[in-house]
Amino acid sequence: MNILRRRALKILCLLAFAVAPAWAQQALPPVRIAMIEGLSGPFANTGEAVYRNLLWAVERVNERGGVRAPGTAAHGRLYRLDRYDSKGQNEDALAALRAAIDDGAQFVVQGNSSANAAALLDAINKHNERDPARRVLFLNYSAVDPVLTNEKCSFWHFRFDAHADMRVAALMDLVRDDRALRSVYLIGQDYSFGQAVLREARRQLGLQRPDVQIVGDELHPMARVKDFLPYATKIRASGAQAVITGNWGNDLTLLVKAAREAGFDGKFYTFYGNALGAPAAIGDAGIGKVVAVADWLPNLQTPASEAFYQAFRARFPRPADDYVHMRMQLMIEALAQAVDRAAVARAGNPDALSVALQLEGATVNFQGQSGRMRASDHQFQQMLVVGVMDRAGTPGVKFDVEGSGYGFRVVKSITAQAAEMPTTCRMQRP
């Protein structure tokens, strides 16, 4: 009996060993991603829109088994997305970063506010140098001040959005071809990003349309203006035929609403005029006049693009939740790819350094869209599109925005190669 028992125990041990990876995967610690965003305050709607996009991307990776488990050829380690409220303030963003690192975050994602991004980047650089055992990577999906991948470029930072100069250049493709345009008004939020947009707009107007007069050029306090009517009145009085602005969130929605109320009938060349209430705020006055540049728009009119958008709407069916970002999906896919490859390269639990080395060479394809990370400055290279507002149902506008009845017809597609710009980054590598 003792022999039989020993044999039985041996068989059970062998069986347990054979299935252990499957059991172990259930208990593996997750890959922790910390989203640090303004989830309260004047820009809370933009933070929540980001969360929906990231959540959807994380769910997709987890549904297919997650990322590669340490020491195995199998997947099974899941993403975990944690939310930290920065309230849009640098001090709160830094406090959130400390909490996220203490909670075990390996990757920090943020984007709404280049000022917050710069503060986080500086803190992450210092933390990674001081505490290499707990290094983290910073993945940036929307903070587009060009300095973040130029003068302030960092090995630990990866930007997945086109920076402000790239977006301005895309808008200028339309401005250059609008020969009837003779005057523009520049207005922006008074912080690093808004200043960068106006600076590049002035530069590119001088190069491409020196005949266009700048009849207004001003910055306003960020997130503090409740009534933009005085600004809109000045814009109308200036005789401007168009406004160029990088405003986002309520600062854009309130501006275009005030312009409509003031009777301004010119064009708006925007970075973010395609969502978060802006189309509904301006209504019919925006038809053919509100222009937006993006990495992707719902009316791109390809089967893969339409399937992608329909899947998002199925996951988040409320019209108010209709703001999907392709670049955030590409970012999470690129991270999964990098974690997988780092796990293979290290045959174990990949750290921030090994993932960064894989991420800076990432090339991603998803739902007909693609992009690549440029290793020299960690600036993602992808196509850009420019759309013009029109009524839903008109040619090229199958989908509206947020149930408003208005959507954006794609009028210009710019390849990644054409959108690419040089960098002044001098990367310091660990």
Describe the protein.
This protein has helices at 2-27, 44-63, 90-102, 114-130, 164-177, 192-208, 229-237, 250-262, 278-282, 303-315, 326-346, 352-359, 416-419, and strands spanning 31-37, 67-68, 75-77, 79-85, 107-110, 137-140, 157-159, 183-189, 213-220, 242-245, 267-270, 290-294, 363-366, 369-374, 379-382, 384-391, 406-414. By secondary structure, it is an alpha/beta fold. The protein folds into 2 domains: 26-162 and 305-381, 3-Layer(aba) Sandwich (Rossmann fold), CATH 3.40.50; 165-294 and 383-419, Response regulator (Rossmann fold). The strands form 4 sheets. The protein has a 7-stranded mixed beta sheet with strand order 9-8-10-11-12-16-17, sandwiched between helices. Strands 4-1-5-6-7 form a 5-stranded parallel beta sheet, sandwiched between helices. Strands 13-14-15 form a 3-stranded antiparallel beta sheet. Helix 2 packs across helix 11. The model is unreliable at 1-26 (pLDDT under 50).
Chart the SSEs and their pairings:
Blueprint: H1 2-27, E1 31-37, H2 44-63, E2 67-68, E3 75-77, E4 79-85, H3 90-102, E5 107-110, H4 114-130, E6 137-140, E7 157-159, H5 164-177, E8 183-189, H6 192-208, E9 213-220, H7 229-237, E10 242-245, H8 250-262, E11 267-270, H9 278-282, E12 290-294, H10 303-315, H11 326-346, H12 352-359, E13 363-366, E14 369-374, E15 379-382, E16 384-391, E17 406-414, H13 416-419
Helix pairs in contact: 2-11, 3-4, 5-6, 7-8, 11-12
